[in-house]
Amino acid sequence: MQFGKAQEREFGTVRGSYSVVTGRENHDSQITLTDYEAELVLDHFGKANIHIGDVKSNEKQSSKPFRLYPEGRRIFLNIVFPKPNKPELRLYISARAGFKPNGEEIWFMFVKESELWIGAFPEELWRSKSSELKRDDHDDVYQESLDESDAIRVSKLKERDIYVRDRNIAVKRMELSSFTCEFDSTHELFISRYSKKPYLEAHHLIPIGLQNNFSMPLDTVHNVFCLCPYCHRAVHHAEKNVAREMLKDLSGKRSVLHDFSLSILDLFKLYAVEEID
After folding, report:
1. How far, in Å, CA of 61 to CA of 193, rounded?
2. Which among 19, 60, 154, 197 is least surrounded, fewest beta carbons within 10 Å?
3. Model pLDDT for residues 178-233, shown as the tens digit of each residue
4. Residue 259, Cβ density class (10 Å: 0-12 exposed, 13-18 middle, ≥19 buried)
5. What is the pLDDT of residues 36-50, one digit of tens each?
6. Sign of the CA dihedral running 231, 234, 239, 244
7. Domain regions of the chain by residue span
8. CATH number given to 5-130
């Protein structure tokens, strides 16, 4: 699978791929490179420089240099077309050579500064690093600001304005949603003791941390969705299939993805809930 915007920012490159190491691949110490993985390798090394046949018949041409993520140590792994006249491209993994990820781990490659890097993480760690939501350190502060009166807001502004998002946009969206949860309008809400309105939280469907990736603003009434606290936590933290269903539902309510030229798979990648093959 090709890098999404979250991986591009994490690794500092737009050219990268990732996939699951199966138990069989770990046992056999070999991975069949497909789709963008194969494209990445062939573009980097050149198809003419990939040996055709088994490794032993030309060990020198089979051996290719990589940088091991994150320390950057140089390692050599074998890559060949094992069968003449067939497009199958095979990478041999080896603990002795320095790279043999466990079954069910996510392995990845990316090109940076004219070198091909390789690495692997447990799936949980990979998804944590790949989630744009994990970067939003100030979301709790933002949510708190939505439940404050203007008087409290003005008082805090005199000390320090740490809100990078406009609360008025979120309040406008709440008004447009008639102060109901936009995922499920039947969800019961309590009345805030501060705002005297049904309590809702604001969620940017395309995470606000990606603003530098887009010329159009992300802090808009169109991109903000009002959710009850349960649904807001769920879209951030629920298991993958639940989060995917919620994202499908929310993205279908407005043309946000179309406006920013994103697919539903792109959105899943931003939240690190995509199916990884």
Report:
1. 71
2. 60
3. 999 999 999 999 999 988 999 999 999 999 888 888 999 999 999 999 999 999 99
4. middle
5. 999 999 999 999 999
6. positive
7. 5-130, 132-270
8. 2.40.330.10
Q: How far is CA 222 from CA 121, 142, 215, 236, 252, in A?
A: 36, 18, 15, 19, 12
Q: Among residues 95, 119, 94, which one has the least CA distance to residue 106?
A: 119
* CA distances for 27 relative to 100, 141, 194, angstroms: 10, 48, 59
d(CA 148, CA 142): 10
**Average pLDDT of 3-8?**
92
Cβ atoms 16, 129 nearer than 8 A? no
Tokens of 237: 């933290």
